[in-house]
Amino acid sequence: MRNLTLSTVLTSALLISAPLLSLNVFAQTEMGDMSGDMAGDKMQPQGGDAPKNARDPHAYANGTTLTQGPYALADGERLTLADEYKFYAILGDRLEYNEQADAAVFDLQAWYGTTFNRLVIKTEGDVSYGKLEENQTDILWGHAISAYWDTQVGIRYDYYKEGKNRQWLAFGIQGLAPYWFELDMTAYVGESGNTAFTAEAEYELLLTQRLIIQPRAEITFYGKDDEQNELGSGLSSTAIGVRVRYEFTRQFAPYVGVEWTNKFGSTADYAKLNEQSSNDTEFVAGLRFWF
Amino acid sequence: MIKRQILTQGVNGSIPAPTLRLKEGDDVTIRVTNNLAVPSSIHWHGIILPYQMDGVPGISFKGIMPGETFVYKFKLQQSGTYWYHSHSGFQEMTGMYGALIIEPREQDVISADNEHIIQLSDWTDDDPMELFRKLKIQGDVFNFNQPTVPEFFDDIATSGVANALQRREMWNQMRMSPTDLADLSASAMTYLMNGTAPMANWRGLFKAGEKVRLRFINGSSNTFFDVRIPELKLTVVQADGQNVEPVTVDEFRFGPGETYDVVVEPKNDAYTIFAQSMDRSGYAKGTLSVAANIDAPVPALDPVEWLAMRDMMGNMDHSAMPGMDHSAMGHASMDKTSMDQGAMDHSTMDHGAMAMDHSTMDHGAMAMDHSTMDHGAMAMDHSKHNMGKNPLAVPSQKVRHAKTEYGASIDMRVDTPRTNLDDPGIGLRNNGRRVLTLADLRSLDGIVDHQAPEAEIELHLTGNMERYSWSFDGLEFGKSTPVHMKHNQRVRVILQNDTMMTHPMHLHGMWSDLENDQGDVLVRRHTIMVQPAQRISFLTTPHDVGRWAWHCHLLFHMDAGMFREVVVS
């Protein structure tokens, strides 16, 4: 029970105060001053809306384009640079083994696309005794809306070994909040009118250039009870963890850590009915990687 | 008529490629055969020539296809130290660069008994595009000098909690790193001197008593070097191939694309030519000695310095003194340099007062104000400003951000840029050495055109480190339209750096005549380094029609989109 208190407090702290503080600044810096008049009177080094008299970046073109106008190359040929190329990444944030449950957890993300528009795939799940227990996969179109934020719109598919698989429409936002909080928040609309909301926050503390502490918190809400999957409406669960990783390279970092998970409301009641605990403390070891 | 053949396979099999020594006034024909499996090109960096000969695929020509030979033909209208390199993809980064030395037709005004070309570069064993992709995934992937928690506690111990927090506040709030000094560090690159790694110790010999001319070329892809030769004074005599009034310094910084010729007078001894990277992660080095068996000590790398407020905000104290950087930000490192150099350079001293007048008075009132100022302390020649007559006599100070600077492609804008040129830059301020600044450079008489500009172009250098996107005005090359310049019309270009990195800006096909914020033309360059939050301007007269490239010469910034096409017609 002590763990519950500690983790609840920490979860609240990280998930509510820090991101909300960030969101407050986010609102100021990313969304701009709604009065719309900031022609030089106010220093605003980031974000905001362009004032009406802002300079036209094409004003010096005098009608020329990269393929048209005097001395353009024949056949519309022109230079193409990496801003028009597509890149990819595969990021394994958590690939870990939980000794107490004899279970493995994976949390992977991949993207493919340009700087501002990407196909994003996120998948996370639990494997127990070599069998996939649960899996949630989001397939999203990520679109940059400001310096540090992408909207993500798409679908989510939930797999339950015991239970009923679910499909959702996903509307999210992922990015970097002021003070370096990595945030990922998504609202879901599912079958038979159920809704869900998940938020994840991560932070990094560098002890050295390679030894890094990473607190992480996650919170889940549901709009309705999902009896088949034993999920209750309202605040359903939280997870808060602290991981310490060593970056042998930036791309390869084993870690150890501890994670506290809590279930709330009807979700906790379902757990109790199954004689499962509604709060757990787990020690984890895993690997963070990307390529 | 001189004919040469270059096989672009690393260029004749060596790194750097062979040095070309040509003569001013000559008509040259250079046949370049592409033995690679991919299209290639050679660009003659800093050379005035017809645009079809400039060697930028997709702009000046189609490029040289595999197996094809392209014939470059042009007349050399200039002399000095230059270089050439591939302008295709990242080929330059894999060794396709060499020195291009053009001897003056008349007697060289620079007298030396001996000379060495010192070409600095950076080498990676990885595929450059793979390094680029890594930066797209994680912008700070190669930065191993990031702020840490123990540093924070050290800071608290020495300066108190409030100061330690305050020092970090702006950086953390803006999600910018104070040690973001280079995208690629020694963790990815090996720094080379004439193609030689530090351990292999490139050596240049001289005879006792000789005056030695060193032709420094920064042929690196992405590295600023801070160059010095401990125990020797460096007399800078040429910048970007153009002769300058000699100025004696201990050290100079130069970015990719720039060249400096210095004359040194070594004693009967050995000296280390030491070129540390701007981010202090590594160095290139070699030895200058009278004999092959003696070496000099190698200095330690300087400590990493955090970017200062002036690198983020420019000149905070804008209303009072746009020209100077005496903002009282409480950073001990900030003020001494500009004070010292201001005292040395009286033209700089005047800027504060002068620029203040601009903001508050009309030109008539300004002339009045001059009479009340201490003329004894003013080295500037006001007569050539013609302030009452030409509204473009002085570069405009009003910051005009582009519409496209408010989107996802940029992570910051500067509203109060600094316009002084006497700042040696991050890591070189107050290091106890006399460091070259742009304010020190004066072209030798007769080089620079003093004609007044007829038009003004303002462009901002922009980027987003987190997304690893670089651009002008927030528009990457693919979304941009060209900048049109009228043939033979003198035009002023204002470049304002809205990023926290330094960018060496290279305009092809025409000279960039750097001016100060009072409109005094100082020096003729082909590549001008623009510091964070700095606003500089130069005048150019495009004498050659055609399409020209204009870009940051940090190769990754260029390829990420900090690139514009210029149409002269």
TrEMBL record, chain A:
InterPro entries: Autotransporte_beta_dom_sf, Cu-R_B_prcur. One of its GO terms (cellular component) is cell outer membrane. It comes from the Bacteria. Keywords: Signal. Transmembrane segments: none annotated. Residues 1-27 form the signal peptide. GO terms for biological process: intracellular copper ion homeostasis. It holds the Pfam family CopB. Residues 37-63 are annotated as: Disordered. One of its GO terms (molecular function) is copper ion binding. This is Copper resistance protein B. It comes from Colwellia chukchiensis.
